Amino acid sequence: MSAKSSRITVQQREQFLEEGWFILESVISEEHQKIMRDACDHLIDLMHQEMDALGVDHLHISHRGKRYHIAKRHHEAPRLTEYVFSDLMADVCRATIGETAFLFYDQYVVKAAEQGIKFSWHQDSGYLGFSHRPYVTVWAAVDDMSIDNGTAWVLPYSKIGVKTLVEHIRDPVSGDKCGYFGQEPGLPAVVPAGSLVVFSSLTFHRSGANTTDKMRRAYVTQYSPEPIYSPETSEPMHLAVPFLKDGQRLG
């Protein structure tokens, strides 16, 4: 699909620039949704094996039976790369970060039934903590999303008055980083499975607890307009996999 026939409208492009986010409802194909559900089950099984081997119930910011953040393992799940490097993702990248794109990061964010815990207000760039060109986060609803099951909430730029990176503080208990402590409630993404919430790495967002009797799964991919280099090692951070060049998919 060419940039001219993109799924993203002019209004959505403008909203991304002005407010830092937009929603695409029910755009992921049924086939890709099944791949994403199967991949999530597979990667949770692998994480449980890793926890068992270490004799722990808490790895990084994942908590067994409560919340899972399974990062940079798209290549370990059957066919998941078909979604990660899809025409849909190419459209999103062209509309937000431009004609050049690299896969920067990917992760499943899973909240277990009746136990999933909340995630604090943060900018994704806040987890890097240094100046860089903003990237785009594509938050995919693997399940139907509601306030009750802990969907994502966003703070539009106009609500918080911030479009730049701010300092974040890590919670020693949860491992979360938090960069906003104000009273703005934000806007919830109440969307059906197969929808996307697209936002800048500078957009504040959070998620609530899952109080329902079903698992809540989201899959997040992030794409940068250039490799992001570590200031300590001068090496590319995370994945830095080439995806688009001059607007065209590579490989």
Number of β-strand runs: 16
SSE-based structural type: alpha+beta
Q: Beta fraction of the residues?
A: 25-35%
Alpha-carbon distance between the two ends: 15 Å
> How many H/I helices?
5
Q: Regarding CATH, which class?
A: Mainly Beta
- Shape annotation: globular
Can you tell me the number of structural domains?
1
Q: Kindly state the mean pLDDT as a whole number? A: 92
Task: Give your account of this protein's structure.
- There is one protein chain.
- The chain is α+β, with helices and mostly antiparallel strands and 251 residues long.
- The chain has one domain (19-246): q2cbj1_9rhob like domain (Jelly Rolls).
- The protein has helices at 10-19, 30-54, 80-84, 87-96, 157-160; strands at 21-24, 58-59, 62-63, 67-71, 101-111, 119-122, 136-141, 152-155, 169-170, 177-178, 187-188, 196-200, 204-207, 216-224, 241-245, 248-249.
- Strands 1, 4, 5, 7, 12, 14, 15 and 16 form an eight-stranded antiparallel sheet that branches.
- The longest helix has 25 residues, at 30-54.
- The two termini are 15 Å apart.
- The mean pLDDT is 92.
Task: Name a few traits of the molecule.
single chain; 251 residues; alpha+beta; 5 helices; 22% helix; globular
Which secondary structure elements does this structure contain, and how are they paired or packed?
Layout: H1 10-19, E1 21-24, H2 30-54, E2 58-59, E3 62-63, E4 67-71, H3 80-84, H4 87-96, E5 101-111, E6 119-122, E7 136-141, E8 152-155, H5 157-160, E9 169-170, E10 177-178, E11 187-188, E12 196-200, E13 204-207, E14 216-224, E15 241-245, E16 248-249
Antiparallel strand pairs: 1-12, 2-3, 4-5, 5-14, 5-15, 6-13, 7-12, 7-14, 8-11, 8-13, 9-10, 15-16
